[in-house]
Amino acid sequence: MTFKSGFVSIIGRPNVGKSTLLNHVMGQKIAIMSDKAQTTRNKIQGIYTTENEQIVFIDTPGIHKPHNALGDYMVESAYSTLREVDTVLFMVPADEARGKGDNMIIERLKKANVPVILVVNKIDKVHPDQLLAQIDDFRTQMDFKEVVPISALEGNNTEKLLEILKSNLEEGFKYFPDDMITDHPERFLVGEMIREKVLILTREEVPHSIAVTVDSMKRDEDTGKIHIMATIYVERKSQKGIILGKGGDMIRKVGKMARRDIEVMLGDKVYLETWVKIKANWRDKKIDIQSMGYRK
Ligand code: GDP
Ligand code: K
Ligand code: MG
User: pLDDT above 70 covers what percent of the chain?
Assistant: First the structure.
């Protein structure tokens, strides 16, 4: 049997469920998820391999109107996938009407020379009539190769989506080895898991203002644990106070929750040490966002 492969990117506004779909398809957490916009800041590949096929999914940052260097980087990295893939999954939520953000994306998709599948997510939140109306409305805007309603959270119809993608694959290379599930190194995933806990536990401007760097990761000969040192960067002193919490409550909670996820991922015991530092307005300067790891 011939081997088939292809690249598929997942594009859409923030919070529509792109990362949730990636993780569901992969059966494990590769991309962090939260109810905060701009949770995903980099392109993240999920490499799905079976005996006869390989699909490389690319999860992307939500497309929004950027207002700093980090925003420019995120939106550009999402759009850049349009030139790199065989199929685009354009994800929209079933429970929110089409808006300016969607229209802006549709304009870009029309110019890109790539087949687009409309994925209407969060069907668990709406009545079937509302779903049909949503599909009809989007269909007036563009020709989609397919339209697939799903719930990424509950896994409804995601098998069907996968089947459609598989049936569209063409003969091709196995780009990545069988055991490789993502393009990012463990260090990156460790930082993301720490960032995810801060996103889940804090509100307002704090989630957008933080970055996490993993400064060292090595096995401690005495305890046998993996000793990880990480820094959480914030933009202001008040934010540092929030991340630390009363008597260090918050940072302890973040560390405890992150450690559990990291241990599952690494399959090893972990000792996690986190520091909080202030770097004023780091999101505004290209050189600063690069130092936080946001580079092409
Ligand atoms: P992204 O910004 O597009 O990557 O979205 P996320 O994957 O981070 O998800 C954003 C929020 O939507 C999270 O709170 C998810 O739990 C939620 N979500 C994602 N998919 C579904 C779904 O199918 N149904 C419901 N009810 N919620 C979902
Ligand atoms: K999100
Ligand atoms: Mg995401």
Answer: 100
Indicate if ligand 1 lies below 6 Å from the C-beta of 208. no
Q: Does domain 186-291 sit in CATH 3.30.230.10?
A: no
Predicted model pTM: 0.96
Encoded tokens for 171: 């003969």
pLDDT in tens, 172-215: 999 999 999 999 999 999 999 999 999 999 999 999 999 999 99
Domain ranges of the chain: 4-171, 186-291
What confidence tens digit (pLDDT) does each residue in 240-288 have? 999 999 999 999 999 999 999 999 999 999 999 999 999 999 999 999 9
Is 121 annotated as a binding-site member? yes
* Ligand 2 center from residue 47 Cα (angstroms): 21
Give the fold, CATH level 3, of 4-171.
Rossmann fold (3.40.50)
**Residue 209 Cα, ligand 1 centroid: separation in angstroms?**
21
CA distance readout (Å), 145 to 90, 142, 165, 210, 270: 11, 10, 11, 39, 46
Residue 19 CB less than 6 A away from ligand 1: yes
Nearest to 62 by CA among 110, 20, 97, 124: 20
In this chain, the answer to whether the domains covering 4-171 and 186-291 adopt an identical fold is no
59 annotated as ligand-binding: yes
What is the torsion angle, in degrees rounded to the nearest 10, for the CA atoms of residue 7, residue 13, residue 16 and residue 19? 40
